């Protein structure tokens, strides 16, 4: 498949596995690498209706995104796969779906954390929600 594949990455080892799987399935595609910065991770205190991020929080997350991309970019260069990058701020599920539409991707390949039991029921799964709500095929990397 020539086309565009969205690869959401959060910096864990599962993302690398998802890249390797996507590279096997779609070696001729352009990969859109996405890192979503989730404001919920900031543990922001709320003052009335106004909340603020701790100083440097967003910049640290941006730096982390660059590190995540660098590792995958290196692998992609070795594999001859073209990539583009996107960093978004917001709820991961919503941003993955938004970027998929905006970038007109043909497929999404993503990892899952493999939660089980009560944790899975309480927290839900970004991968499962994306798979249910996406307008394009979604592959969950093994």
What's the structural blueprint in terms of helices and strands?
Layout: E1 4-8, H1 13-25, E2 30-37, E3 46-47, E4 50-51, H2 57-79, E5 83-89, H3 92-102, E6 107-110, H4 117-123, H5 126-133, E7 138-140
Parallel strand pairs: 1-2, 1-6, 2-5, 6-7
Antiparallel strand pairs: 3-4
Helix pairs in contact: 3-5
The H/E string reads EHEEEHEHEHHE
The helix tally amounts to 5
> Low-confidence parts, pLDDT < 50 over ≥5 residues?
46-50
Let me know the largest β-sheet: 5 strands, parallel
Report the average pLDDT across residues.
86
Distance between the termini: 20 Å
**Percent of residues in helical segments?**
40-55%
Question: How would you describe this structure in keywords?
Answer:
44% helix, 5 helices, alpha/beta, five-stranded parallel β-sheet, globular, 142 residues, single chain, Rossmann fold
Structural features, described:
- A five-stranded parallel sheet has the order 5-2-1-6-7, sandwiched between helices. The chain has a two-stranded antiparallel ribbon with strand order 3-4.
- The chain has one domain (about 5-140): HUPs (Rossmann fold), CATH 3.40.50.620.
- It has helices at about 15-25, 55-80, 90-100, 115-125, 125-135, and strands spanning about 5-10, 30-35, 45, 50, 85-90, 105-110, 140.
- It is α/β, with parallel strands linked by helices.
- The chain contains five helices and seven strands.
- It holds the Pfam family Usp.
- Belongs to the universal stress protein A family.
- It comes from Halovenus salina.
- InterPro entries: Rossmann-like_a/b/a_fold, Universal_stress_UspA, UspA.
């Amino acid at each position: 498949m020539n086309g565009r594949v969205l690869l959401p990455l959060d910096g864990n080892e599962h993302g690398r596995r998802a890249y390797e799987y996507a590279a096997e399935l779609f070696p001729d595609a352009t990969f859109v690498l996405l890192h979503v910065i989730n404001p919920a991770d900031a543990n922001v205190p709320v003052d009335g209706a106004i909340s603020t991020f701790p100083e440097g929080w967003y910049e640290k997350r941006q730096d982390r995104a660059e590190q995540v991309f660098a590792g995958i970019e290196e692998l992609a260069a070795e594999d001859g796969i073209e990539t583009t990058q996107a960093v978004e701020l917001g709820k991961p599920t919503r941003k993955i779906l938004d970027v998929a539409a905006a970038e007109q991707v043909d497929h999404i390949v993503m990892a899952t954390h493999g939660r089980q039991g009560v944790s899975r029921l309480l927290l839900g799964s970004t991968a499962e929600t994306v798979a249910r709500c996406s307008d394009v095929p979604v592959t969950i990397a093994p």
